[in-house]
UniProtKB/TrEMBL annotation:
It is an enzyme of class 3 (hydrolase). The keyword Hydrolase applies. It comes from Limimaricola soesokkakensis. The keyword Metal-binding applies. Residues 188-286 form the Peptidase M20 dimerisation domain. Its EC number is 3.-.-.-. It comes from the Bacteria. NCBIfam families: amidohydrolases. This is Hippurate hydrolase. Its cofactor is Mn(2+). GO terms for biological process: diaminopimelate biosynthetic process.
Length: 387
């Protein structure tokens, strides 16, 4: 089962869907047009059931095989949302919405899963049920979490779930995957250091919040270098540092910092939060200031399940002859929530030598469509072989 001929035939049609989505990007949960198109197509393909409004603007389609005696139900998930980036590709189908852009290829993901749904609804050459899942708000909004909270897995009886993301740098038509932790947890923090402002010429009458905050930034580096096991991964980055004074001669009353903590292990994630809070609070106290920490939990670590990962790689090898071992990725992915609820796997499909995702010159490669669609179809037909 290399590339399926049907997807070579469908390529112009799927490409047209993809470019239309690209031209009309929608951010977070505002995927109203996109969701409407997805639902309309799924109905036109003859899906047995189409449900809208799960996880606010998510869409689900159900396709039953020629037989369903196996009792198996597999979920296939794509994301639909764009990013608040101003597109600079110069492509004829570039975003028509200033400040919004499909810079992560979710237009391609949606189009590929629609293509697979069309094929699966036409052929139904499997024994079981496929649930195609189109989620909003992957880019920081937790759309996957919201769909799970709306009972996605239970309502459709999903037993296993699979996801796919295009990846620049992996050759077109090739795949990469890894078992276990794959994408990082992505927490965010704000630290406010409250000192005592005053005249820059009279530091002894102040509590210099800028000096205190600087000590905090330095001390936070000890989490990765001295608290974490050096064979594991953790990133602690302070990304914003704003004092309440813009003057040359004023010691600021307050400093506000922002940043992110990313890890590949739930235990290290807990340690990171504990150490960050303790370091900020006690360092500030040591200098007579006060620290307020607001720690905001983001996506959990995305962990691929062993057996399903091996299966996903087998299907990829059938499609493209090979499946590489993917590196750890310190970005986040809210498919993590679905993999917390059900066994499954997430795979990368090559986008070729393009700008990286989230770059204003990035574009999804339509040449990746046949491989991506063939992988989706292969997962279904191999996991639930026709009776
Ligand atoms: Zn992204
Ligand atoms: Zn993405």
């Amino acid at each position: 089962m290399p590339i399926k001929n049907r997807f070579a035939e469908l390529l112009p049609e799927i490409t047209a869907w993809r470019r239309d989505l690209h031209e009309n990007p929608e951010i977070l949960y505002e995927t109203h047009r996109t969701s409407g198109i997805v639902a309309e197509r799924l109905r036109a393909f003859g899906c047995d059931d189409v449900v809208e409004g799960l996880g606010r603007t998510g869409v689900v389609g159900v396709i039953r095989g020629k037989t369903t005696g196996s009792g198996k139900v597999i979920g296939l998930r794509a994301d639909m949302d764009a990013l608040p980036i101003h597109e600079q590709t110069g492509k004829p189908y570039a975003s028509k919405t200033p400040g919004a852009m499909h810079a992560c290829g979710h237009d391609g993901h949606t189009a590929m899963l629609l293509g697979a749904a069309k094929y699966l609804a036409e052929t139904r050459n499997f024994d079981g049920t496929v649930v195609v899942i189109f989620q909003p708000a992957e880019e920081g909004g937790g759309g996957g979490r919201e769909m799970c909270a709306d009972g996605l897995m239970e309502r459709f009886g999903i037993q296993e779930v699979y996801g796919m993301h295009n990846w620049p740098g992996i050759p077109l038509g090739q795949f990469a995957i890894r078992p276990g932790a794959f994408f990082a947890s992505t927490d965010q923090f704000e630290i406010t250091i409250e000192g005592k402002g005053g005249h820059a010429a009279k530091p002894h009458e102040t509590v210099d919040s800028t000096l205190v905050a600087s000590h905090v930034v330095l001390a936070l580096q000890s989490i990765a270098s001295r608290n974490a096991d050096p064979t594991e991964q953790i990133v602690v980055s302070v990304t914003s540092f704003e004092t309440s004074s813009k003057a040359f001669n004023v010691i600021a009353q307050r400093v506000h910092m922002k940043g992110t903590v990313r890890t590949m292990s739930p235990e290290l994630r807990k340690l990171g939060q504990e150490r960050l809070t303790a370091i900020a609070e006690t360092t500030a106290r040591a200098y007579g200031a006060e620290a307020k920490v607001n720690y905001m939990k983001g996506y959990p670590v995305m962990i691929n399940h062993g057996a399903e990962t091996e299966f996903a790689a087998e299907v990829a090898r059938e499609v493209s002859g090979d499946c590489a071992e993917a590196p750890l990725i310190m970005g986040g992915e809210d498919f993590a929530y679905m993999l917390e609820e059900r066994p499954g796997a997430y795979i990368l499909v090559g986008n070729g030598d393009t700008a990286s995702v989230h770059h204003p010159e990035y574009d999804f490669s339509d040449e990746a469509i046949p491989a991506g669609c063939s992988w989706w179809a292969g997962v279904v037909e191999r996991r639930m072989p026709a009776a």
